[in-house]
Amino acid sequence: MTRVVSVTRLGVRRDKRTFQIAASMSRRGFQSAVVEGERSSLDREDLPFDLITVEGAEPLRAPDAGDGDGPEAVTESARRAGSLAHRVASRVLAPRTLRRLFLADNELTYRALPDADLYYLTCFWQFPAVWRKCRENGARFVYDANDAYWLWPGYAWYPRLFRAYLRLIERRCVRRAAGFVTVSEGVAALLEERYGRRPDVVRNMHDLRMDEESDVDVRAAAGLGESDFAVVIVGNEKPSDAVEEPIRALGELPDRVHLVCLGAGYDKHLPLARELGVSERVHVIPPVPPVHVTSAIRSADACLVNIRSGDVHRFALPTRFFSAVAAGLPVLHPPLPEVRA
To answer: What is the pTM (predicted TM-score) of this model?
Structure first.
């Protein structure tokens, strides 16, 4: 039987696109597996695919702009010192440290990868590991560029030399991929301009066949009554999401309007809600598996797609939009051309 292995740097619980692709491969009769870079708290026996977690991996990520954490912190004191020697050390040593961590992460990914006929790669960061496996086994791979990664706000945090290295890695990934896809026409145009190859577009459509009833109902979980107006935000909080703005907006809206955040990472915004006196109208609900999202949010009155419309996100067509449509909810969204289309 043909084996297809999907590879994601995230936990598959919070990577709905990879989850749906792997499930679709299984439904088509392929032996499907997912190699995830973060451990997901899912019942593996209930999944439509095999799930393998990279042991010991600590994915190398760009922090938010202005965040001092991360591998480059080894040179933070040198930058503050401000001497020419320290500034040179910061520019030279930090890229080397990052590259070493990048390659170590790929080595761990390589060890976790099973043999396959086809690999489905969702981020170029794991390209070295996947390409090594392809050469060993005569396999091929598809590169699914979920974003124009170089436009992400945190990407500029990396030193210039390391960003150049990452661009080389993604260029090789694009050129060697047997198939090349992305999420929207806007992102496809950006990738073609940068790498000279236009990807096919596979949108983040919701697969209703995967939906299951959830034990979580956002209205009930938030303790809201029928007269309350529940606006739900779906998905784990990301640095580029607008969360502070809707919390502030509650102060200008009737008391019966509530904001319900379904996912991880929203707790850090609760102090602002208390400061503004709207804490009783902001509710944080823990994440649910991707197959339970539609059922969980169906009782809300509207869904807020809270992606900021600047930088790369102006071309976004996010999975949370399709989740809202699948649940039959009205959608509040920023001026995103792909959504308007």
So the answer is: 0.74
